[in-house]
Amino acid sequence: MEIGLLLVLGWVAGWLTTVAGLGGGVFLILALSLRMSPAEALALSSPALLIGNLHRLAAGRDEVDRRIAVPFALGALPGSALGGLLVLAMPPAVLQLLLVLTSALALARALGWWLPRPPAAALVPAGAAIGAMAATTGGAGLALGAVLQSAGLTGAAYVATAAAAAVAMHVGRIAAYGLGGLVTSETMVPSAVLAVAILAGNLAGGCFRKRLSARAGARIELGVLFACVALALFGLA
C-alpha cells in the first residue's frame, strides 16, 4: 500500500480520536478494508493504534480513572485475544458485514436512538465483550464510549481512560493476530508508518481540541460516524 496514503489515513485517525475521543480507529480500519481484506486491515492497523493509544495514555496518565480502567482491562485483554482468534476463521464477507453493523449501531447511539447503560458492576464482562468486538470489527471504541459515559466520565478523564482500556484490547488482539500469522515482519513496516502518522495526528488534534467547544466536538463525532457508515456500506458493496 502506498506510503503517502498510509500517512494521510494515520494522521486523520489520530486527529479524529484525539478531538472526538473515538472514531479514528474505526475510520482507519474501514478505509484500509477498501484496499485489502478486513482481517488484513485489522492486523495492519492494530500495532499502530496501540502506539497511538499509548501516547494518549502517557499524555493523560494523571487523568485515568483506575476504578474503571482496571476491571475493564481485566475483561478486555482475554476478550480481545479470543476475538482475534475468531477473525482467523471468519470469511471476509462476514467481517465486512460486522463492520457495517457496528458502524450503524454507533451512529444510532450518537443520534440518541440507542442508549446502552451498562451497570458499573458489569465492567469485567463488558470489557470482555467489547474486547472481542475490538478484535473482530475494530469498532469497540464506540461501545467503550457508552461504558465510560454511563460511569460519568467526561473531558480529559474520558479520553485518558478510553486510551488505557484501548491499550488492553490492542495487546490482546495483536497477540492473537500474530499467533494466526496476520501480524508478521512484512506488516510491521506499514504499521510503523501508520504509527508515526497517528502520533502526528494526536499532536495536531490535541492542539485543536483545546480550542473546541463541546457542541463542535459532538458535531465532529456525528460527522465521523456518518462517514464510517458510508465507508462500511461501500466496502460491503
Structure characterization notes:
With 237 residues, the protein is mainly α. The protein has one domain (3-236). The protein has 10 helices and no strands. The mean pLDDT is 82. One of its GO terms (cellular component) is plasma membrane. Pfam families: TauE.
Give a short overview:
With 237 residues, the protein is mainly alpha-helical.
Question: How would you describe the shape?
Answer: globular
Report the total helices.
10
Q: What's the rounded overall pLDDT mean?
A: 82
Give the H and E element order.
Answer: HHHHHHHHHH
Radius of gyration: 16 Å
Distance between the ends: 21 Å
Q: Strand share of the residues?
A: under 5%
Helicity, as a percent range: over 70%
- How many strands in all? 0
Transmembrane segments: 12-34, 70-90, 97-116, 122-148, 155-176, 188-208, 220-236
Pfam families: TauE
Organism: Nannocystis pusilla
Membrane topology: Multi-pass membrane protein
List descriptors.
237 residues; mainly alpha; 80% helix; TM_pro_TauE-like; Probable membrane transporter protein; cell membrane
